[in-house]
Amino acid sequence: PPLPSCVVPDGHWSKATMSNYQTMLVSESISSIEVAHRTFGEKTPSGATRVVLHPGRRLFRWFTPIPAGMHALLFKHGRFVKIVEPGMTFLAPWSHVKYLVTQQYTVFDCPVKDCPTADNVMVQIDTMLVFRIVDPQTFIFRTSPEKLAIRLQQLQAEAVRGLARSVSYRDVYTLSGKSTDDMRRTMNDSSMSMGVEVKSVTITQVTVPAEIAKNLEQATTFHTLQEEQKKQQEYELKRINDQDELNRKKEDYKNERIAADKEAENKRAEMRKEIDLLNGKTQQMVSEIQAQQHANHNEVVAGAELFVANRQAEKEKVLKAMNAEAEASMAATREEASAHCERVLSEAKLHEAQNRAKALEIEAETEKEAAEKLRVKREFERAQQRVEVLKSLASNSSTFITGKQGVISASTLAKQAVSAEARKKALDASLDVMYGTQKR
Fold first, then answer.
1. Helix or strand or coil: residue 23?
2. Residue 161: which H helix or E strand, with range?
């Protein structure tokens, strides 16, 4: 049937149009393989589904990209060669990809009208099947998209009419939304010969005549009201029974609680009696334990004091022995040290005396050898001292000296002495020359 009567302006399908819509399958020519994906993903302006494409020839191009998701049938000199795998493929000028067959699952909607039920009521059943082309070579050479649509419609109508015949018009609504494996297997037995596999068959909608639908609605409404009234009566009866049962259980629970309270009171009295008895025994045991602990404490304290006393006595005894031994050792050490010191002192004194004697002998020998040599030196030193005295007197004009020659000033006396000293120095110089010659 033509599709324009089923298409609404905004491109969506209403419930009314869906019952009259049938999928159309077509093949179409395209300019190049590159637009195959986009073309397969869109419907034609009339709403048909493309399952086969005829790409144009690619002149002067040796490599052709084969897209994934479709079967590419390669022809050479007009004869089928093979199905090309997806990817970049080398194609000679005399080779050509003539058909592109989709590998995707395709949804095929087909309403089946005038389906008689078991009680001969004509109903309309809309079905939806999902198929896929698994053998593109068989599909291309044995059929076409248009023929496949007609064949699927025939197979679907036959299977749906057989299913509708098995139920009455009252139960025909139970078929809606049902997926039937038996129908799928039956259709596959015929469609596999065309290279097509039916994946699933589902009944989407069941439509009965308006008059029968109204009668069914009224019957259903009456039946529903009856069921509702019956359920309401059952609910009221159950509510009354539940209330009686609840009251009876409350009374039983009240009696059981009173009996349980009495039993609990008796048990509490027995427990209090046992607790008092246990408290008395516990107090007695505590007293005995405390007395035993006190006795043990006293015994431990006495033992500890005795042990401490014994240890103290042993300590004092050991200390006395150690002190005595230390004192004896110290006395012996002092005696030894004293004797050693005296011995060392005696030896030191002896060495000192010997060293002094040797020193005296050396000094005597030295003085004996140097007496003559030192005599001139001593006389020079005395002369120097005398000169210093005379210098001091010469510089002091306020001092006067009294003698046999009368009173004379110290400065005058010093000048006289200096002249005499000059003569002495000349003599000393001659002596120094003589002393130096002898020394050499």
1. coil
2. helix 145-165
Kind of pairing between the strands at 196-207 and 122-133: antiparallel
Tokens standing for residue 105 = 């699952």
φ and ψ of 119, to 5 deg = -105, 25
Which among 110, 122, 125, 116 has a CA at the least distance from the CA of 209?
A: 122
Which residue in 311, 291, 18, 69 sits closest to 176, CA to CA? Answer: 18
Residue 98, phi then psi, degrees to nearest 5: -90, -30
What are 151-193's pLDDT values in tens digits? 888 888 888 787 777 776 666 666 766 657 778 888 888 888 8
The Cα 206–Cα 178 span in angstroms is: 11
Q: Give the pTM.
A: 0.41
Instruction: Please give the Cα distance from 277 to 269 (Å, whole number).
Output: 12
- Put the strands of the sheet holding 49-55 in their side by side order: 25-30, 49-55, 95-102, 70-76, 79-84
Question: Could you report the per-residue pLDDT of 274-303, keeping only the tens digit for each?
Answer: 998 889 888 889 988 988 988 888 888 888
**Cα–chain-centroid distance for residue 371?**
109
Q: How far apart are CA 150 and CA 24, in angstroms?
A: 9
Q: 47: which 2 tokens?
A: 């709403």
Residue pointed to by tokens 């005396």: 353
Q: What distance in Å separates the CA atoms of residue 134 and residue 192, rounded to the nearest whole number?
A: 9
Integer Cα distance of 101 and 137 in angstroms: 9
What is the per-residue pLDDT across 132-158, written as a single tens digit (0 to 9) for each? Answer: 888 888 888 888 888 888 888 888 888
How many angstroms separate the Cα of 257 from the Cα of each of 107, 244, 246, 265, 355?
A: 71, 20, 16, 12, 130
For 166, residues 6+ apart whose C-beta sits below 8 A from its C-beta are 118
Q: CB neighbours of 190 closer than 8 A, spacing ≥ 6?
A: 151, 155
Q: Are 57 and 32 in contact (CB under 8 A)?
A: no
What's the average model confidence in pLDDT over 118-140?
83
For residues 274 and 111, what is the distance between their CA atoms, to the nearest angstrom? 90
- Could you give the CA distance from residue 371 to residue 375 in angstroms, rounded to a whole number? 6
SS3 348: helix
Cα 349 to Cα 336: distance, rounded to the nearest angstrom: 20
At 276, list the tokens: 């008092």
Closest to 83 (Cα-Cα) out of 98, 63, 65, 62: 98
- Give 4's DSSP letter: G
